[in-house]
């Protein structure tokens, strides 16, 4: 497994990411994730949709909560051909409980806790913590990555305007 040290930090401390660096123009790698109802899904389950694949360390932390609520609010403006998937290592039961408590109804939360396949395939698995780094990948309807953002400091939010613009463009393609 490829190791990429120092690309992200937590409170200024460098961490190591496992997996490859993905770039715009690449075909989006597959993944196996678990829904809040314990079903297994893969990238193929979202074929034909423009996707924002949003990885966060844990929904039950302040920055992740703000980010997920923001994307949930923005989702209504994006149309039915767009799906926002927020992926963490949280257990599906915890994700479901958190979404219910926070009123999250447009963002789909998915768990990578079983296989860490998303984290490894998208290069965002933090070796030292077995959590996902904060990142966003926009994938167009053809399955091609059109935007990537790896947030340097895990406690910072992504560049929402860039993500939303890329997502609108991916939906229009």
**Structure classification:** alpha+beta
Tell me which CATH architecture applies here: 3-Layer(aba) Sandwich
Low-confidence stretches: none
Integer count of domains: 1
Task: Tell me what you see in this structure.
This protein is of the alpha+beta class. The chain has one domain: Glutaredoxin, CATH 3.40.30. The chain is built from four helices and eleven strands, in the order E-E-E-E-E-H-E-H-E-H-E-E-E-E-H. Strands 7-6-5-10-11 form a five-stranded mixed beta sheet. The chain is globular. The protein starts with a strand and ends with a helix. 39% of the residues are buried. The mean pLDDT is 96.
Summarize the structure.
This protein has helices at residues 62-75, 92-102, 117-121, 160-172, and strands at residues 3-10, 13-18, 32-34, 40-42, 50-55, 82-88, 108-111, 125-126, 131-132, 135-139, 145-150. The model has no long low-confidence stretch (mean pLDDT 96).
């Amino acid at each position: 497994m490829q190791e990429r040290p120092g690309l992200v930090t937590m409170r200024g401390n460098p961490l190591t990411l496992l997996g490859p660096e993905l770039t715009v123009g690449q075909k989006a790698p597959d993944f196996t994730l678990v829904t809040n109802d314990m079903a297994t899904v893969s990238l193929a389950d979202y074929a034909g949709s423009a996707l924002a694949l949003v990885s966060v360390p844990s929904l039950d932390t302040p920055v992740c909560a703000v980010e997920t609520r923001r994307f949930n609010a923005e989702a209504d403006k994006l149309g039915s051909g767009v799906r926002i998937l927020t992926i963490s290592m949280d257990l599906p039961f915890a994700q479901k409980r958190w979404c219910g408590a926070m009123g999250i109804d447009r963002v789909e939360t998915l768990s990578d806790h079983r296989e860490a396949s998303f984290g490894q395939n998208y290069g965002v698995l933090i070796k030292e913590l077995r959590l996902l780094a904060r990142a966003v990948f926009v994938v167009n309807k053809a399955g091609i990555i059109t935007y990537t953002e790896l947030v340097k400091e895990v406690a910072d939010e992504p560049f929402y305007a860039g993500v939303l613009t890329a997502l609108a463009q991916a939906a229009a393609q």
